[in-house]
What we know:
By secondary structure, the chain is of the alpha/beta class. It has 2 domains: 9-226, Rossmann fold (3-Layer(aba) Sandwich), CATH 3.40.50.300; 231-311, Alpha-Beta Plaits. The chain is built from 10 helices and 14 strands. It has helices spanning 48-55, 77-82, 99-109, 116-125, 141-153, 171-186, 198-204, 222-229, 272-285, 300-311, and strands spanning 9-17, 23-32, 37-41, 63-68, 71-72, 84-87, 159-163, 190-194, 207-212, 215-221, 231-238, 254-257, 262-268, 290-297. It starts with 8 loop residues before the first strand and ends with a helix. The structure holds adenosine-5'-triphosphate (ATP). Pfam families: ABC_tran.
Amino acid sequence: MKQSTPPAIEVKDLSKTYEGGFQALSEVNLNIEHGEIFALLGPNGAGKTTLISILCGLVTRSSGEIRIGGHDIIRDYRSARQLVGLVPQELATDSFESVWDTVSFSRGLFGLKRNDAVVAGVLRDLSLYDKRDKQIRTLSGGMKRRVMIAKALAHEPRILFLDEPTAGVDVELRQDMWNLVRGLQHNGVTIILTTHYIEEAEQMAERVGVINHGRLLLVEETSQLMRKLGRKQLTIELGQSIKQVPDQLNGYRLSLINDGSALIYDYADEFKESGIADLLRRLNQAGIVINDLHTDQSSLEDIFLDLLKDRQ
Length: 312
Ligand SMILES: Nc1ncnc2c1ncn2[C@@H]1O[C@H](COP(=O)(O)OP(=O)(O)OP(=O)(O)O)[C@@H](O)[C@H]1O
């Protein structure tokens, strides 16, 4: 019988209570497939770093089971850890080591043989090759962050965790970072990132997990989530202002704005086709002249805020 490949990450009933009694994670269940880009979204203190740190073996769980590439992270720690690279939120700075030595040493920490071609490749991908002989303490903040990524990639991990990779970085580095992420995914690397830049999760991630107060509220394909929860708004600019929405349009979620010169119609994607044509016909029947129409779609950010409001 052919055995199926285990998921990149399997988390079952994971809970974490820190010393002192604070429960940072409760009953988290999550599977992440190979080659996915998965975004973990949540406000400050939601438990994202705790989850990532447990998955990388830096923080111990209180209960639950975790496998990385099928390896239990406690019983089979080395095999599990070998598969994982972590770019932490905090930058390790002020090193007197050179960029090259730091990255090469990181590879050695995983018991791997020295491989200059791999280290050179990683440094080139991150535009660090020219700086390879510089001491880390002499680099700019952005360059130091690149070194952190290079360190995480030095042992060629199959799964890369990026803890808020774009917080406080400039546009150029952010762009480079996302190009790098796409390139890694192309090579089959699984990417798990946390971000406060929700539009980026929307653009980059195939699936999103929303976490708050240590609970994973939902895990959904990004497009699915947008479709399901993403409300749309149609703004109807009127030829002439009106004082109130005519009675015959009471069945629609309409509101008047801008002193009665425009109507807002809230609708969900699935009602788009029939709803709008019907509404426009009825407006016409009510003698309302339409000047212009435009639509707005709620972003993942809006959805996220709505979710937190509903479930708190
Ligand atoms: N070592 C610790 N001891 C006690 N409590 C901790 C410890 N580390 C984290 N916490 C608490 O656990 C909660 C979750 O923290 P965590 O860093 O996982 O959140 P986060 O979602 O990553 O937040 P941020 O977006 O701010 O990084 C926070 O309330 C934090 O104060």
